[in-house]
Amino acid sequence: MAVEVVCVASWNVDLIAHIASPLQRGQTQLAQGFERLPGGKGSNAAIAAARQGAQVGLIARIGGDDFGQMGLDLWAKEGIHSQFVVRGEGEVNGTALILVYADGDNSIAVYPGAGAGLSPVHVSAAQSLLSQARVVMASCEVPLAATRLAFEIAKSHGALTLLNPAPAMPLPADLWPCIDVLTPNEGELLMLAQATDVATAARTLLSRGVGAVVVTLGERGCALYRRDEAPLHVAGHAVKVVDTIGAGDTFTGTLAAALSQSCAWPEALRWANAAAALSTQARGAVTAMPSRTQVQTWLG
Predict the structure, then answer these.
(1) Which of 41, 74, 185, 247 has its Cα between 20 and 30 A from that of 50?
(2) Is 258 exposed, middle or buried (0-12, 13-18, 19+ CB in 10 A)?
């Protein structure tokens, strides 16, 4: 079966400590729990898309130790095509140090490891994969040169390109027109546009060439902004949050799956919004991501 969604993916292992409140400089707290779980925004989003029924392929670079094998085993289990995942033997894998607080919020420090070596050469080698895709997605956890080339190839074959601009950073001017869909959270959107309100920020990024801006707003849901069209708002869901790790990745991956399956915008946003809300009901990123059946049942 042809691949519908291709992710230019980051991979890391999440080392998660649960503590009462954010640390002050020089402070030590005893953690109430610790977990080692799969992570990386790209891998997370790819898994979310696969669980929503899309055929997914990866372009990635991982390390050669047991953390790298952990990724390969996980993707095989999720039915994700990994023939264009390259291993850097002897290199350290990406690692995320995550502090989760009692209210479910979190802080994250990410070391990209072997993923920092993903280059346009690796993307070029995967042209046969990209040429099949309906949606090609990436985040700012992978080198921008690799993302730009993947998006250029995708657009040349008529695919939709989707960028989750996290972690937020200044982006080169020539990348903006390559982005069909941008999925920032509110803070990332305001930083990218250097604006103080969502609507102004979205219009600023649209003026740079982005096709559509989908901003996630936490418990307030999400909003879609396009040129010459009224904003489309989708309300949030009232849920008791266990933790928010991976909620944005779940939203992005689910949206990519829905768009690859030709869902109209209102339905695609409703589905992504629900999947993200459900993902906050358990600890971790991948462990909390719902299946298509779970989303359908919850919405039903």
Answers:
(1) 185
(2) buried
Element (H, E) at 107: strand 106-111
Active site residue 249: yes
Helix/strand/coil for 127: helix
Q: How far is CA 158 from CA 161, 178, 182, 268, in A?
A: 9, 12, 17, 19
Residue-wise pLDDT for 99-130, tens only, equals 989 987 888 888 889 999 999 999 999 999 99
Torsion of CA 121, 122, 128, 129, to 10 degrees: -150
- Return d(Cα 293, Cα 141) in angstroms, integer: 30
The phi and psi torsions of 268 (rounded to 5 degrees) equal -60, -45
Q: Where are the domains of the chain?
A: 5-22+33-299
Residue given tokens 């990123």 in the structure block:
285
**Which residue of the set 14, 180, 243, 249 is catalytic?**
249
